Amino acid sequence: MNLRMTSYILGLLLLFEGAFMMIPTITAAVYHEQELLMFAVIALSCMLIGFLITRWKPKNKSLFPKDGFVICALSWIVLSVFGALPFVVSGTIPGFIDALFESVSGFTTTGASILHTLEGIPKSVLMWRSFTHWVGGMGVLVFIMAFLPIAGGRNMYLMKAESPGPSVGKLVPRVKTTAKLLYLIYFSMTLIQFVLLLVGGMPLFDSICISVATAGTGGFSCSPEGMNYSPFCLTVITIFMFLFGVNFSCYFLLLQKKFKETFTTELKVYLGIIAFAILTISLNVRHMFSTLSETVLHSSFTIGSLLSSTGFATVDFNEWPQYSRTLLVILMFIGAMAGSTGGGIKVSRIVILFKDMLNDLSAMIHPHQVKKVKMDGHTVDGEIIRTVHSFMTVYLIIYAISMVILSFDGLDLTTNFTAVVATLDNIGPGLNLVGPMSNFDVYSTTSKIVLIFDMLAGRLELFPMILLLTPSTWKK
Amino acid sequence: MNIIIVGCGKVGKNLAEQLSEGGNNITVIDNRPDHVSDTTERYDVLGVVGNGASHAVLEEAGINNANLLIAVTGSDEQNLLCCLIAKKAGGCQTIARVRNPQYYAEAPYLKEELGLAMVINPEREAAEEIARILRFPSAIKIDTFVKGKIELLKFKLPEDSPLCGMAVREIAPKLHCDLLVCTIERGEETFIAYGDFCFQAKDIVSLIADPKTAITFFRKIKHKASPVKDVLIAGGGDITHYLCKSLEKTGIGITVIEKEQKRADALSDTLDNVNVILADAINQEILMQENLDKKDAFVSLTNLDEENILLSLYARSVSQGKIITKINRIDFDQVIDRLDLDTIIYPKNLTSNHIIRYVRAMKKTIGTNLETLYQIIKGKVEAAEFIVADECPLTSAPLMELKFKEGVLVAAIFRNHKVLIPRGSDRIQVGDSVVIVTNQMGLHDINDILR
């Protein structure tokens, strides 16, 4: 382990977190809220601690794959712990574990809340809650990399550990330029959505909160009335939820006018799933709405929200017919595309697994057949397929253990089952007691800790958190 | 600059590392996925798996925006094809590694017809370096500036050297030699030489002088300054071929030990005054039969690094002569450097250094041209030659009035066919060739040495 480099990066992280907290500080100033002082103090102390730690500069900047994973996992834990402070200090969420749950849920872009109502919560705290989605969406280490040179060539390991998807490629030769490009696309898309919402008549505060929450595929709402907006605004949100679930390299290729390369197998499958789900669910829930356009709007909103792992809800889909409920849960598992800000198993993993399975079946008929898994004309490396398989194994193990621990709270199986998928896939709402109109406060503290772990594990693609808990990582 | 490197072997990786650190955007292409992923994980570069001679693959690697393509795969034909296609597709500059002596002999034709910017042959580079050292065996390493008019020599001080205990500033008055001591390596440490610095035995000293002064200087400090008269070479590969070709005319007696009948036949077919012995060099009796202990120099050039090291260690124990060892793998250079093997030649480093020199020169700015570039101490100190073509801040005042960055030494000026070791009152003029020694790596404009 390169401890000095680890602490250096954690220090940088705190510096940036302090800077990010300036946004709720400004919000508090604008709305004349008494939280102004609190946010300012917390922001400045984050920056001070970060500044002091970064004074201790590392001599040896080289990182190994292991360091990448550990730094990534630790960063997210530190980020969440400090991010929870405003909730505790402001008294919004007095219990620390509850506050940590809310903060982790924010940074991991889950959007699962333990709050019963948003009534009476200061706007600055709501802003911080939503803004954590934006910070966590593209990844905070990627952000640091975009603006600071941290580890020469080997910081690819950091990016790999933080970015979603089975194989992480760079857009351009340099990590730094790649990170900058990603953030540029991310920022521009957020801005476009914000302007569109504003044009659609949404209040300024809501437009900002909803845009950053959609961009990070988070899902915290920001007003006590929930998603009570005009159909135009809901349509905009729906479209952007789908867009933020797309691999960002597609946008990069699109900008370079490489239209042919943009439409990858993964994108086609993603669009196919969306089309299929909208069609069948709309038919299934047609009787619950008065007009056809309303049916399509609300079903596509819900599908976009769950597939992209955002987790906004306009209607209580817990009340929908069984077919719709079942399909929605399956969509939760599939999740968004690799390289997007969304969570879930990821479409590309599903495609790889499916193709690998077909090859295996075919090999049972022709035992000596040589057949490789191919995506977009390229052979998928055997090592990637192996990692996808072990990802699935780890996923199932975490799933099973979480379910068992949650079961001691005595809630029903559907609640527990969807609570785990909602957190592990960073979605937000599940079904029954954790449905879109309920919250996660039904669980005991132990269960909340388990769900906190699931959210972090899910956001970091499982391995960093698991490696953090593996003893041999820490052996010399 | 956007650079595409085809081939992720040792040279490819070395180039990727150094060029990427030099601020270039690098894309590597190789058809072996493991080599590509190894390179992209270690260095900040983009990787493409595929055949570098395929137009589609080059397109994927961004040939349209590339400034330079470097083809260093194991196959000459593939390298040439890569360059040809890259030239046609992207119009970028191209560099090919060509090892086959037959092709290399036609290098000027290839360069012309295929539009290559540079053809590089590692074996020939290595042979030339060895030949230079055999002509001046006291040095561990010799690099030349201004087409051989200025030499950068590296040598090791023996225990009984008259230089031991002498300060750098005493050289000129005591020995009447106008030269400049650049760096001194002592153990793991490196010093830029200042006036009060005292020499110690076993120091490795780098100095800059014109060739004649260098010979006088080495005579005065009782080093051997005459060329070797007879040399024993173990291994008869391509380097041996080029080396013998280059030494033939000088009248040095050459004996080559080669164990393969075919190679031995080929050598004696193409070379005249060379004594070819068909035997395995890993045999003390054979070595003694060929008078290893009485030869002026021994060069180990077999294909195996381990054999070369063993042979050189043995030669060291029985002979007082010059010993040169060729090492292919560059991964353990620090360990090998500590073995006290006299001169070590890394053909792979020579190749990449040569290419890097070219890339840096491509970035030249108006007014100054980077002509040559050497690493005196790997990754720490460089020597660079510039031609001052126009008036620039550097020519505005005498040297002592200019504010130089720390760790910069104006080592030599070449003006009117004469080498000048600069003093404070000297002034750089337009048309001068200036040699700079510096620990500021990555220099490509001479004005960068000023604050």
SSE layout and pairing:
The complex is a heterodimer of chains A (476) and B (451).
Chain A: H1 3-20, H2 22-30, H3 35-55, H4 65-89, H5 96-107, H6 123-138, H7 140-147, H8 156-162, H9 175-199, H10 204-215, H11 231-244, H12 248-255, H13 259-262, H14 265-285, H15 292-307, H16 322-334, H17 347-365, E1 374-375, E2 378-379, H18 382-407, H19 413-424, H20 445-459, H21 463-469, H22 471-474
Antiparallel strand pairs in A: 1-2
Chain B: E1 2-6, H1 10-21, E2 25-30, H2 33-42, E3 46-49, H3 55-60, E4 68-71, H4 76-90, E5 93-97, H5 101-105, H6 107-114, E6 118-120, H7 122-135, E7 141-145, E8 150-156, H8 171-175, E9 180-186, E10 189-192, E11 204-209, H9 211-220, E12 230-234, H10 238-248, E13 253-258, H11 261-270, E14 274-278, H12 284-289, E15 297-300, H13 305-318, E16 322-326, H14 333-337, E17 343-345, H15 347-362, E18 368-377, E19 381-388, E20 408-415, E21 418-420, E22 433-438
Parallel strand pairs in B: 1-2, 1-4, 2-3, 4-5, 5-6, 12-13, 12-15, 13-14, 15-16, 16-17
Antiparallel strand pairs in B: 7-8, 8-11, 9-10, 9-11, 18-19, 19-22, 20-21, 20-22
Helix pairs in contact in B: 1-15, 7-10, 7-15
Task: Report a brief summary of the structure.
The complex is a heterodimer of chains A (476) and B (451). Chain A is mainly alpha-helical. Chain A contains 22 helices and two strands.
Low-confidence stretches of chain B are none
Whole-number total of structural domains of chain B: 4
What portion of residues of chain B belong to β-strands? Answer: 25-35%
Task: Quote the average pLDDT of chain A.
Answer: 90
Coarse morphology of chain A: globular
